[in-house]
């Protein structure tokens, strides 16, 4: 019997579970916000509570918890605890499948703590992969018979009523062996304090919610939309670290793996909670979840853009300070995506799903970028778009330019997309003539200065070759949303 074993657990199907059964109708959609909040909290807390509960049930020390959160956990156990741990996790897995209507599942792998960490990690991952690729491997032949997926209305009540708002207000969460797949807001046989700071005796959880107008509950999406500057729209922001898995695979020992994974989790849980408590965000955004390498937030459209820029700035500083000893760019950049609701009473799950698709597009096209208002931009170009947006809105507000001005500028992009015949000199001349026609009407020196700046930002510094910059189109759409009441 080996002296030590390593146990790695993972939750599968979280995306499918969060998107399952999106409600219809205005009242149902409002309730669906609390349901989705409760589901995301449950997934987040499962990977924090289950490994701690396992250690407590087996009478083992808290220090044996390696890492937890972000949909997975890692434990170091004595060899004789193998069977007891298997029994514990099997019971939890059954109830997790029941509560999620088989959308989410718990899998785990166990191996001896022998050999180089790269070999140990490969054994753990191989076993997890075999279970992921053969989910019915331990089922009987009846698993292939036609069936109708059963719904569990009591589970939805549990997520919406027992989690959701209760977890946001609770000082601790509990667990009991009678319900091994459930977490309760309050006490259980074992309980742990909730905190946004790293502590050996507490669970890190980002749970800020924008308050409603009466301050008694979380603000619904329609309230968040009304609090936006300009047009009343809400949306979802999702972010994900680029090549995070590759960064973890390159560490050389478990002593290096655990602190690194905890470091990322601490950044997202801690920084998100602090940022969302700042005056410019606390009434406009609500945290859906924060994981080991990703996060999701919903709220007023303008606050989401500002929050994305701030998270990227802090993440860049975080990696510069904490990962300077690690070679390569893996795990040192972050990509994000924003999806806006087409109308106020739109299901949160649908906008969350669209934000996920947008994030996939951004990460497939490039790294260290953001999908915003229909375009993928590098972060440095987003800063250019923000500056250009300020120029356009100033022209509209200070010099009383019509909002039709924005649509005329956008038409320049449409013409560029279809192409214009003639030489570069002719194209430049045509562009300047159309642009001057749009901005004609005053000889004010400040106006002319803004006009020249706007032209240079839209086409770049080399005016001999007119090539409209993608950030310009984002800026024009951004300015349109700001100026629409």
Largest sheet: 6 strands, mixed
What's the order of the H and E elements?
EHHEEHEHHHEEEEHEHHEEHEHEEHHHHH
* Number of helical regions: 16
CATH class of the largest domain: Alpha Beta
State mean pLDDT (0 to 100 scale).
83
Q: Can you give a write-up of this model?
A:
The protein is an alpha+beta fold. It folds into three domains: 4-134 and 151-188, 2-Layer Sandwich (Alpha-Beta Plaits); 206-372, Reverse transcriptase/Diguanylate cyclase domain (Alpha-Beta Plaits, 2-Layer Sandwich); 382-483. The protein has helices at residues 14-19, 26-57, 82-99, 117-133, 153-162, 165-169, 221-226, 244-249, 254-276, 301-322, 348-365, 379-398, 404-418, 424-438, 445-459, 470-483; strands at 4-12, 65-69, 72-78, 105-112, 172-175, 184-185, 190-195, 202-204, 234-241, 285-290, 294-300, 334-340, 369-372, 375-378. Strands 10-11-9-12-13-14 form a six-stranded mixed beta sheet, sandwiched between helices. It has a four-stranded antiparallel beta sheet with strand order 2-3-1-4, sandwiched between helices. Strands 6-5-7-8 form a four-stranded mixed beta sheet. Strand 10 (285-290) and strand 11 form a beta hairpin. Helix 2 (26-57) packs across helix 5. The protein starts with a strand and ends with a helix.
What's the layout of helices and strands?
Elements: E1 4-12, H1 14-19, H2 26-57, E2 65-69, E3 72-78, H3 82-99, E4 105-112, H4 117-133, H5 153-162, H6 165-169, E5 172-175, E6 184-185, E7 190-195, E8 202-204, H7 221-226, E9 234-241, H8 244-249, H9 254-276, E10 285-290, E11 294-300, H10 301-322, E12 334-340, H11 348-365, E13 369-372, E14 375-378, H12 379-398, H13 404-418, H14 424-438, H15 445-459, H16 470-483
Parallel strand pairs: 7-8, 12-13
Antiparallel strand pairs: 1-3, 1-4, 2-3, 5-6, 5-7, 9-11, 9-12, 10-11, 13-14
Helix pairs in contact: 2-5, 9-10, 12-15, 12-16, 13-14, 13-16
């Amino acid at each position: 019997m080996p002296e030590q074993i390593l146990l790695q657990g993972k939750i599968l199907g979280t995306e499918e579970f969060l998107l399952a059964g999106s409600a219809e109708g205005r009242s149902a959609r409002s309730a669906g916000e609390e349901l989705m909040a409760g589901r995301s909290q449950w997934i987040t807390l499962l990977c924090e509570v289950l490994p701690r509960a396992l250690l407590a049930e087996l009478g083992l020390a808290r220090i044996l918890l390696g890492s937890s959160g972000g949909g997975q956990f890692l434990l170091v156990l004595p060899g004789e605890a193998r069977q007891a741990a298997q029994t514990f996790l099997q019971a939890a897995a059954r109830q997790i499948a029941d509560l999620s209507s088989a959308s989410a599942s718990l899998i785990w792998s166990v191996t001896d703590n022998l050999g180089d960490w790269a070999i140990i990690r490969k054994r753990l991952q191989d076993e997890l992969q075999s279970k992921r690729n053969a989910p019915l491997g331990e089922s009987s032949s009846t698993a292939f018979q036609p069936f109708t997926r059963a719904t569990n209305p009591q589970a939805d009540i549990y997520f919406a009523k027992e989690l959701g708002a209760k977890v946001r207000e609770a000082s601790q969460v509990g667990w009991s062996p009678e319900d091994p797949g459930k977490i309760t807001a309050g006490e259980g046989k074992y309980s742990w304090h909730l905190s946004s700071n790293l502590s050996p005796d507490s669970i890190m959880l980002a749970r800020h919610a924008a308050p409603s107008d009466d301050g008694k509950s979380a603000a619904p999406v329609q309230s968040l939309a009304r609090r936006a500057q300009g047009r009343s729209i809400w949306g979802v922001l999702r972010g994900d670290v680029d090549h995070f898995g590759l960064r973890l695979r390159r560490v050389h020992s478990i002593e290096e793996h655990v602190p690194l994974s905890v470091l990322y989790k601490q950044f997202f849980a801690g920084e998100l909670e602090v940022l969302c408590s700042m005056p410019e965000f606390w009434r406009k955004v609500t945290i859906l979840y924060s994981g080991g390498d990703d996060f999701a937030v919903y709220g007023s459209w303008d606050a989401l853009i500002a929050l994305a820029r701030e998270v990227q700035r802090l993440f860049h500083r975080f990696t510069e300070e904490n990962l300077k000893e690690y070679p390569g760019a893996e795990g040192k950049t972050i990509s994000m995506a924003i999806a806006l609701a087409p109308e106020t009473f739109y299901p949160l799950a649908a906008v969350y799903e669209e934000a996920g698709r947008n994030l996939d597009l951004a990460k497939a096209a490039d790294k260290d970028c953001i999908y915003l208002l229909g375009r993928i931009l590098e972060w440095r170009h987003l800063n250019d778009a923000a500056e250009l947006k300020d120029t356009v809105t100033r022209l509209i507000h200070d010099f009383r330019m019509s909002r039709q001005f924005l649509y005329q500028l956008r038409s320049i992009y449409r013409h560029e997309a279809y192409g214009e015949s003639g030489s570069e000199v002719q194209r430049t001349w045509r562009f300047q003539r159309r642009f001057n026609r749009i901005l004609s009407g005053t000889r004010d020196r400040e106006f002319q200065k803004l006009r020249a700046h706007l032209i240079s930002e839209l086409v770049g510094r080399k005016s001999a070759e007119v090539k409209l910059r993608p950030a310009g189109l984002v800026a024009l759409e951004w300015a349109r949303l700001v100026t629409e009441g």
